[in-house]
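Reviewers of the previous submission asked for a worked example of the structure-prediction workflow described in the proposal, so we include one complete record here. The input consisted solely of the amino acid sequence. No template or homolog information was supplied to the procedure at any stage.
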Amino acid sequence: MTETELIHYVSGLSGVVTFTASEESGGPASAWGDTFFFYDPEGDLPDNRRLPFATLVVHDYAGWDTDSQLDRDGIFRVNVAAGRSSFERLLGYSPAAQAAHHDEFDYAATDVVLPHPIYASQGWVSILNPSDQTSTQLRSLLDEAHGLAVRRHARRQGARGDSPELAHPSGDSITELNAEVKRLLDRPNYAHVATLLPDGAPHTVPVWIDREGENVVILTGPGSRKARNLERDPRVAISLIDVDQPYASVLIRGRVVERIDGDRGWEIIDRIARKYTGQPYPLRSGRIVLLIKPEHADTVIFG
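From that input alone, the workflow returned the following structure tokens.
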């Protein structure tokens, strides 16, 4: 399968927008010649909501993505957002385990399915110069990735825009979380929580996260820096990245409205731990739950 044949095939799938970066298109110089495939059936998605489901790359990115040695004459690489299930079926381990398997592969090999050298942990696979061995398989992978993109688009359309803001009796606004925000919060995705230090400087840490209805919950030590910050100033900002789609995120602003301990707190803590590890939380003391009422929540796609 040549580059031209590949572009023709993917561009022929329903709703696909094909973009090849160039000086004329205004793309960054580092990406000139690379082609990106988006699902955008109406052709009206803003750039920050476009997420490619496949790309065709024709050169290395110096200092970052060089393992495939794409600067060799006639070499190109097709990258496909296969998703967690297909990735595991193809490679025998989950995307989250990529770091332990990275050195097992020759990323410069042609006509073989490989984990993406950079984005494998997000469920991406690659094939260099697909030919007799992989052309048919590649078409199937592209069809599957296109199907995933169609379903993501439908979910986003159903939850387009910010979550609706409702009047709160105090005069503040609260947020009814939309379906896509809830979906990403309910999965074992990692979040970063930003709070304010006493001098007003920002402080951010990675956390496990979950929902209690329309509210957000995190666990922490009662004497932790973020707990002390939030006791003084309850305002909080949260960002969450979808492990399967590194450019898809949830952005939340809100306030801590309750600190939960005792049996109710441990019930929530164990539920959160099971989501991430499959087991209850290993400690039975020294942790509380912070209940956060969102004032703004939205899903954003970068790239």
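Residues 3-158 form a domain with the Aspartate Aminotransferase, domain 1 fold (CATH 3.90.1150). We consider this example representative of the routine output the project will generate in years two and three.
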